[in-house]
Amino acid sequence: NAGVMQNPRHLVRRRGQEARLRCSPMKGHSHVYWYRQLPEEGLKFMVYLQKENIIDESGMPKERFSAEFPKEGPSILRIQQVVRGDSAAYFCASSPLGQATDTQYFGPGTRLTVL
Amino acid sequence: GESVGLHLPTLSVQEGDNSIINCAYSNSASDYFIWYKQESGKGPQFIIDIRSNMDKRQGQRVTVLLNKTVKHLSLQIAATQPGDSAVYFCAETYSNAGKSTFGDGTTLTVKP
């Protein structure tokens, strides 16, 4: 019974390149959340998706960032033209129903380093 | 705006002592709170949760207290062990959105 999986675990990109982060939710979960964590800080909400729909993207930067959760396959967080300030740990979480009282199960994170 | 914050950034305790980690929140409409534990290099791990219609909830060695009057949340860990060393986050979840707002975290260090 695999938990939330994220890959890659570590990603190094040069400024201007694209970063693609993948998240496979727990089996049976159709709700995915992406969070960003800067060093020595808490997690900041970015986006909440359900299969094929973006439910809440209030935490997403207006430019360069996008997310999707297709009918088949993992959720993808895409960062175009990365800058050094994008260096952070990106976590995804999943829940079964998307209700406020659902436990969100977190993946191990992807640590993005922008050179 | 709403925020969730922690009173103390670090806490150091002796093994076997009890630990108390505090958290303040500002949105009085919040109705669900969670404590997470994050070990170095790992994702947050759910510890315990509490709904706003409760003021206390107990788990195995952990207790969460909610004081809605002063908008304060605490996590009590009994007989703290070295394995409890981690960063602890409180989080507030909105009823309709499902997203969580996290505090900045308290680093708990347990000395043997």
What does this structure look like?
The complex is a heterodimer of chains A (115) and B (112). Chain A is mostly beta strands. Helix content of chain A is 0%, strand content 49%. In chain A, strands 2, 4, 5, 6, 9, 10 and 11 form a seven-stranded mixed sheet that branches. In chain A, strands 1-3-8-7 form a four-stranded antiparallel sheet, with no helix packed on it. Chain A is globular, with a radius of gyration of 13 Å. Chain B is globular. In chain B, the strands form two sheets. In chain B, strands 2, 4, 5, 9, 10 and 11 form a six-stranded mixed sheet that branches. The N and C termini of chain B lie far apart (41 Å). Chain A binds chain B through residues 4, 31, 33, 35, 41-45, 48, 55-56, 58-59, 91, 93, 95, 98-109, and chain B through 31-32, 34, 36, 41-46, 49, 51, 89, 91, 93-105.
Tell me the layout of helices and strands:
The complex is a heterodimer of chains A (115) and B (112).
Chain A: E1 5-7, E2 10-13, E3 19-24, E4 31-37, E5 43-50, E6 53-56, E7 65-68, E8 75-79, E9 88-95, E10 105-106, E11 110-114
Parallel strand pairs in A: 2-11
Antiparallel strand pairs in A: 1-3, 3-8, 4-5, 4-9, 5-6, 7-8, 9-10, 9-11
Chain B: E1 4-6, E2 10-14, E3 19-25, E4 32-38, E5 45-51, E6 56-58, E7 62-67, E8 72-77, E9 86-93, E10 100-102, E11 106-111
Parallel strand pairs in B: 2-11
Antiparallel strand pairs in B: 1-3, 3-8, 4-5, 4-9, 6-7, 7-8, 9-10, 9-11
